[in-house]
């Protein structure tokens, strides 16, 4: 039996020292009780155990059906939106399959390939804007590169008008900010639904060739297939998941390549590809560190003798699992673009595996290649260890990412 702490490990809502926290979680075995902003859950860090749970019918994402504490917690928990939304993120069984089928057409290989030219154009425009700045100016690449690319791409996919994109960015940032109080999170959620309602109203008046119009048509033509709440929350899921996670992937990729010049040299010399660089970034610094929540449908016995009891909550701790030494050996904490196996859980696993993974990979690859081709010598203004985390136990990025694009100019 694995030794467990006498009280749950309290996760830092600001994610200030994520790697030390991951080491602590792994030290207690495959899973350990943790406190997630006042809610107890099992943090699962063993990749084999986590993959098995993510694929098991004994694990649900439907809090209403399988979490006895739902009605109590949802009233005051700052992360209530993460468990209360009604879309495929929180669906289980047949409901999940139904909702996933509705979104799948937007993420077919053909549709994603068709976005390649759009992404290339956006990246080139952003790089041209950066190139026009004074050579000695320091630039926040999170603000001026990592943010605008995915918000423009998801805006194109979902048909979000330009004048609404800034509103969506602000409220989606709030969804991932786990330092907010319950009152602040509730106010952000109310604003978020106002913004979503405005988008739905505009698309009803003027539908287009986009995913939002398609979902509205599905709802309006057959109200029994997609409820009002499912329509609204499905739009929220696609917009938020397609935006914030890609921002953080680009952010972390820039930091890793700028501070590991030997690895950047491997890519530029053809000893590794830009795809390798993105995959190793996703493994080492996944955009989602912890993903709340799942629930035990039945008692679940773990290999080390622990038991997750029916109704208990489960936290998928991807950041800790991705660096597990049993998975990637003694070099699990190293950034190595030539690593033969870059297997990771950055996009989840099993039936809830991220539909937008190919799009995120394309955006990340195009962005990093374009940036370092244009500015091969870019450097961080401060050492990587001095960058301030974004302030979230969920998302894994920085508040700002200031660089000098041409440090030798």
What attributes characterize this protein structure?
alpha+beta, Cytochrome p450, 6-stranded mixed beta sheet, 3-stranded antiparallel beta sheet, 19 helices
Can you offer a commentary on this structure?
The protein has 409 residues and is an alpha+beta fold. Helix content is 51%, strand content 9%. The chain contains 19 helices and 11 strands. Strands 1-2-3-9-6-4 form a 6-stranded mixed β-sheet. Strand 2 (31-36) and strand 3 form a beta hairpin. It is globular, with a radius of gyration of 21 Å. The relative contact order is 0.18. One of its GO terms (molecular function) is heme binding. This is Cytochrome P450. It holds the Pfam family p450.
- CATH architecture name: Orthogonal Bundle
Instruction: Average the pLDDT over all residues and give the rounded result.
Output: 93
Oligomer: single chain
State the major sheet: 6 strands, mixed
* Rg calc: 21 Å
What is the string of SSEs from the N terminus onward?
Answer: EHEEHEHHHHHHEHHHHHHHHEEEEHHHEE
CATH homology superfamily name: Cytochrome P450
Count of helical stretches: 19
Total strand segments: 11
GO molecular function, one term: iron ion binding
Protein name: Cytochrome P450
InterPro entries: Cyt_P450, Cyt_P450_B, Cyt_P450_CS, Cyt_P450_sf
Keywords: Heme, Iron, Metal-binding, Monooxygenase, Oxidoreductase
